[in-house]
Write a structure and sequence with these properties.
CATH topology of the largest domain: TIM Barrel
CATH superfamily of the largest domain: Metal-dependent hydrolases
Helix content: 10-25%
CATH class of the largest domain: Alpha Beta
Number of strands: 37
Low-confidence stretches: none
Oligomer: single chain
Distance between the termini: 56 Å
Radius of gyration: 26 Å
Largest sheet: 16 strands, mixed
Shape: globular
Number of domains: 4
Mean pLDDT: 96
């Protein structure tokens, strides 16, 4: 599908440079160590845990009891990340980590013994965890590691490493157990996602495949008719293919010394393309620092193995000036990537980034922009994001704000719940940019808080902004272990109803028209008198319409139909119908929700449609409560910029205030 040997020279050189950065600096690739960069060093060891935020905030509060939320983030740099890992794990070990416990009584090694074939060494990480009140020195392969009182240190080792503590050599035998070798051949008949694992969740992979883990901490790789070496002991083989398919699973004990063929394929749950709907991930990264280097070949295998129709691989920076995959964007801008076909379309796009104003994706652009980011390394927060929106729109891009909001918020909360201090990547400028028609969508389905983003989205459309629901996962090919960001792209998707063949242009046009829904897996339909998302009905006062929501997917627990005034109807899946009498102008959206599920690669199942708009007597929806909510947001944004923004001149701040002023005029006119 994509031959790395035929890669453009500039792209090949960039990948070699990334490999050198990884070798020199580790997972951060030498990026400026702002909080989300520092946390990269811990992420691989904490998959499957849910207490990271609580633990690090508790560690800071123990030192600074009166610290505010903003100060907690500012003091994150004080923490020793190895100690954070130790505290979050709270005595647990995992498949990629063993522990050397140092206590007043002596020392002990704790590990899940992992199978090794033909005596090959196991590469892992040793957590040196001291409960002693005095410093300790531990030698690993001749290198001294100083562990402070009650401190911790993460050290890369192999099962053959020499570890010296308390004057003697530490026995590392508990780390491994020998196993006889066998071989599996896996065949589905089409590209799929495979998981092969044994005792303690130990994963097995084909030669050369990265040791990836998804949100459920399952190992996985993509392909068809693949061969891998495994131990001759009980294993689980699992196959799936994105959200339009179920999964199939087989328990097997392969024979030692031989090859065992496993023919296993997932069943299709729904076929969106057959109905003219195509699912896309508007925000995924090939490279964004990481514990490995992402290649086009890996991205191609993921897209086809997940049957993801549209993949937007975005070029963007991390915390400094370097823009990862800018060379690939320069080469392929305006063109489909080589592995694209009639139902799988891949493009290079952009993630434009400012941590105070928000990040947004751009898809389908014809050429690279002149600027990719502002506000990093102490640079100015200028110009406003709106300037980049205008440039990218001129390049033909579809645009929407990405991973928008992180803090829990309810429908009745004011915007201050989301406008807290600090550079936390929240999409603060969207309330202005949406009013001025500068963006097309909001990634309601994202890796941060889907529920909070959905609340903001409904305020925005209730205030008269016509933007579509989209989905952007922020999946990263260059991370093998990082929570839902090491999921394959497409674990959340925006489905768009496309006219004619799938192209970048037809997909973007469908999104601009609002003919979309976003989902973590469930299929969701909305019909208002036979009209779907993106439609506008012009009704007379008192006119009745029938609203129907339908879902497909075993993870759905409840359906909702909502208008600008709140929940109109709710009930169990798979179909919900009600009547609506036209009064004030409004919108209608449908939601499908459910709890944690194997098909949901985040905290729970969720789907949300774009609206059907109900104009009444020629008037558009502009609900007073939502308009005032947006005006209050703009006031908070102005305060935030004055307090937290970095500017060199009064005119730079003035440009932001002018943008906010123009947006205020739009909202105030809607109140009239």
């Amino acid at each position: 599908m994509c031959d790395d040997s035929a890669m453009p020279p500039a792209v090949a050189r960039a990948l070699e440079e990334y490999r050198a950065l990884l070798a020199e600096h580790g997972v951060t690739w030498g990026e400026d160590p702002i909080p989300y960069v520092r946390s990269m060093t811990a992420d691989a060891y904490l998959m499957g845990t849910a207490t990271f935020r609580d633990v690090w905030q508790g560690m800071i509060r123990a030192r600074h009891p009166q610290a505010s939320s903003g100060e907690l983030v500012e003091r994150f740099a004080e923490l020793d990340m190895d100690e954070v890992v130790r505290n979050v794990l709270a005595g647990k070990v995992s498949d990629n980590l063993a522990a050397l416990r140092l206590t007043g009584e002596g020392l002990a090694v704790e590990a899940h013994p992992l199978a090794v074939l033909d005596g090959e060494p196991l590469r892992t990480t040793l957590l040196v965890d001291s409960a002693r009140d005095e410093p300790v020195t531990v030698l690993v392969d001749g290198r001294a590691h100083e562990i402070g009182p009650r401190g911790a240190r993460l050290v890369k080792i192999t099962s053959g490493s020499e570890v010296i503590a308390d004057g003697g050599r530490v026995d590392l035998a508990p780390l491994t157990r020998p196993a006889a070798a066998a071989r599996l051949r896996l065949r589905a008949g089409f590209p799929c996602k495979w998981s092969v694992y044994g005792a303690h969740g130990q994963g097995w992979y084909p030669e050369g495949a990265p040791a990836r883990r998804d949100y459920h901490v399952l190992p996985y790789f993509h392909g068809d008719d693949v061969v891998l070496d495994v131990p001759a002991e009980p294993l689980t083989v699992r196959v799936s293919r994105g959200m339009e398919y179920g999964s199939a699973e087989l328990a097997i004990t392969p024979a030692a010394g031989g090859e065992t063929l496993v023919e296993l394929a997932p069943e299709r749950i729904y076929d969106a393309a057959a109905l003219g709907w195509y699912g896309g991930d508007m925000h995924a990264h090939l490279n964004w620092a990481g514990d490995m280097v992402g290649t086009p070949e890996l991205a191609a295998a993921m897209q086809h193995g997940e049957d993801l129709h549209v993949l937007n691989l975005v070029a963007g920076n991390v915390s400094s000036a370097r823009v990862y995959d800018s060379e690939a964007l320069a080469h392929w801008a305006g063109r489909d990537l080589p592995w694209s076909d009639a139902t799988h379309l891949a493009r290079l796009g952009v993630e434009y980034r400012n941590d105070l104003l928000g990040h947004f994706y751009a898809f389908g652009l014809s050429a690279p922009p002149s600027r990719f980011h502002t506000g990093f390394l102490g640079s100015v927060d200028w110009p406003p994001n709106s300037v980049a929106c205008e440039e990218l729109r001129g390049l033909g891009a579809l645009m929407g704000y990405s991973h928008p909001f992180h803090n829990p918020v309810s429908d009745t909360d004011g915007p201050d719940h989301l406008l807290w201090q600090g550079r936390n990547c929240s999409s603060r400028e969207i309330v202005a940019d949406a009013a001025l028609g500068l963006v097309d969508s909001l990634d309601v389905l994202n890796h941060s808080s889907i529920a909070a983003t959905a609340v903001v989205y409904r305020h925005l459309i209730g205030a008269g902004n016509r933007i579509a629901v989209t989905a952007g996962t922020d999946a990263m090919v260059s991370f093998a272990r990082r929570g839902n960001q090491s999921n394959p792209p497409g674990w959340a998707r925006v489905y768009a109803q496309v006219d004619g063949p799938l192209t970048a242009g037809s997909f973007a046009e469908a999104v601009r028209r609002g003919r979309t829904f976003g989902t973590t897996g469930p299929w969701l339909e909305l019909s208002v008198d036979g009209h779907g998302p993106g439609a506008t009905l012009d009704l007379s006062p008192g006119e009745r319409v029938t609203v129907t929501a339908r879902s497909i997917g075993p993870e759905v627990e409840r359906l909702e139909i909502r208008t600008a005034d709140g929940v109109l109807a709710e009930g169990p899946p798979a179909e919900l119908t009600c009547e609506l009498v036209a009064g004030d102008p409004t919108y209608v959206v449908a939601l499908a929700v459910g709890g944690p599920h194997e098909r949901a690669f985040t905290g729970g199942a969720y789907a949300h449609t774009s609206p059907v708009y109900l104009d009444v007597a020629g008037r558009h929806v502009a609900r007073e409560q939502d308009v005032r909510w947006c005006l209050e947001w703009l006031d908070g944004m102005e305060t935030l910029l004055r307090r937290q923004g970095t500017f060199e001149t009064a005119g730079q701040l003035g440009d932001h205030l002018e943008l906010i002023g123009r947006a205020r005029e739009v909202y105030r006119a809607r109140l009239g």
